[in-house]
Amino acid sequence: MTAPRLLLSLRSLSGPTLATRDRMLEIVARYREPESLAVTLAKAAAVPVDGVLTCATPMLRAALAELETEVPLFVMVPAMSEYERQELGPGLETAIAASRARVRGMAGLRVGWTELFHPKWAGGGDFVARMPVLVEAELAGLKRDALRGVVLDAWFTDLALAAGHAKFFESFARYVQRRCRAAAAFETRNLGTLLARLREWGVKPDFVIGPLNPSGLLMKPNPEELLAEVQRSDIPVITGELCAGGVDELESAAAYARERGAHGVAPDVAEVDDAGAELRTLLRATATA
Amino acid sequence: MRIGERAEIGTPLRPVRVGVVGLGRVGIVHASVASAMPNVEIVGLADARSNARREAHGVGFRAPMFDRMSTLITKTSPEALIVAVPHDLRPRLVREALESKVAVLTGRPLSPQLPESEALALLAQGNDTPLACMHALPFHPVFAEVRSMISAAPLGSIRRVRASSYRSLVFDPARQAAFAAEHAAGGVVAHEAMDALFYLIDCFGMPREIRATTLKLFGPLEDESHVMMTLPSGTGVGLDASWSVPGYPSPATVIECDGDNGRLLASDDAVELDLLDERAGFRSGHARLGLADLPQRARFDVDGEATYLLMGAFLAWVAGGEPPLHRAERSVRAQRVLEAIYTSASRSGEAIPLAATP
């Protein structure tokens, strides 16, 4: 699997973001209808970006249905609204139940088949045993041809990271690569710490996504240690939160990340105004680099 | 203004053995953050619910697990406990830990009943055992900065303070009933605005009088409230709170402060300062400090910067450092105001005087 160089991230539409409240109100209003999201996806595909980093939300599915062109997807699991995220407990079962409730028709067969081998009665609450069910429920109904990667949400990544659950990281990556035939990745809010632990454990996902920006915002454990880990690690790093909540300018922030060893960048829809033009500029800069 | 302390990051300067009681969201977040903190060892986890223990194990925690806090204390000898349990269980477990001379960081308020909270704070003082509550707002980077700004007094004499605390949480009777079932101290003020209340008292001092009105939309607990606190100087400090307003998936706090020399506006995103004249090292005109401009001292982030910082400050205290901002007696002070708010609301907004408290 090749790690992407340029992704358009829809993370702020269904996840935590550093964008200000005012900016988020603007973005939510802009993408209230699937048609407007479809336009942005079409622009991103035309650039072309390596993919779109997104949750498999009903809104995304509706937007994809509007398009004739295929949009490569890096699917973040699980799909949760920010309201659900604030209520989420430590275990997987709530997320699995919510995800299964969204599965319709024949797509449920594959989920049921996976559950047969990873039943709740045997492994309820266990990240290793139950994650395949969550992944399959999230991917149900999506065109597998468009699937390029599966990315685990930072909430679960960081809990398992704090607990030192090496086996989980290994099993998630293996499952996604072998069964989904897609790149396996972890989103994190603790990029430096994650890279250090993965190196220590000898676990190699296809890439990791985390904050890296000139302001140093959300760069954990601190900007110096994080940048040193990015240089040291052989796992490709895709950087998110490039603009640090609107403080840093996108183009120079992307250049900053690349110069410090980032493999790729994932600007968020909240960080771009003209998706087509700005992504094209970033693509040119990536090619030059 | 009586602010001498800053919400500085502290981490324990020697190894501290920590146990976590209650393995719901709050407990697991604190266990995760503690695991990533230098000089902290998680020695045990406890929860009476077997599925909660199974889920914590499923996340990957390998510390010994117990169904009772007392067993955890006996078997692992922790120096500090994070007690993250519902309101109705909290006082008994906190008392049990304090009687075993184990330091406690727990939710707020300490107990739904003010006398019991006061008794617990006194017990901790008598035992010389650290006891603190999870008041996160003073540790939020923006509000920590605002606190030191207010301390420096660039606004001059404060004329008016307005604050709000909003969250989208309760939109039907069933949701409210879930909170009421835990014998909570109250509704939105006790649950969501308690941190803002704690913060306002910490920044501006104890009020001498309280007036409050509340609105009950979905059940016996208040869903919205309007509080007016009068400081000894006569300055009014207003606090509006609602947990039934759409558009706030996570808690949102705003504080506006008007003084003789200008205005301060703080939210979770940034603080803006408009000054007429240069004062206390602050230039005249408009200044804005966003999150990216402020120190980010936490080394690990699961649920925001503040969780790491408040726990670091508590565990530094346990290891022999200075008492932190969120120590129990300060939380109890905020609960006295909370009780006055509910008394006023129950009497249709009648003014309730508060005894002078340091």
Description:
The complex is a heterodimer of chains A (289) and B (358). Chain A has 14 helices and eight strands. In chain A, helix 12 links the parallel strand 6 (207-211) and strand 7 (237-240). The model of chain A has no long low-confidence stretch (mean pLDDT 92). Chain A has helices at 21-30, 34-46, 58-66, 82-87, 93-102, 107-117, 120-123, 127-139, 154-163, 166-179, 191-201, 223-232, 250-259, 275-288; strands spanning 7-9, 51-55, 73-77, 147-152, 183-187, 207-211, 237-240, 264-265. In chain A, helix 5 (93-102) runs parallel beside helix 8 (127-139), helix 6 runs antiparallel to helix 8 and helix 11 (191-201) runs parallel beside helix 12 (223-232). In chain A, strands 1-2-3-4-5-6-7-8 form an eight-stranded parallel sheet. Chain A is an alpha/beta fold and 289 residues long. Chain B folds into two domains: 16-133, Rossmann fold; 139-292 and 327-353, Dihydrodipicolinate Reductase, domain 2 (2-Layer Sandwich). Chain B has eleven helices and 15 strands. In chain B, the strands form two sheets. In chain B, strands 14-13-12-11-7-10-9-8-15 form a nine-stranded mixed sheet. A six-stranded parallel sheet of chain B has the order 3-2-1-4-5-6, with helices on both faces. In chain B, strand 9 (224-230) and strand 10 (236-242) form a beta hairpin. Chain A binds chain B through residues 18, 20-22, 25, 81-83, 85-93, 123-130, 155, 158-160, 162-165, 167-168, 189-190, 193, 213, 215-222, 244-248, and chain B through 23-25, 28, 31-33, 35-36, 51, 54-62, 168, 247, 249-250, 252, 267-270, 290-293, 296, 298-302.
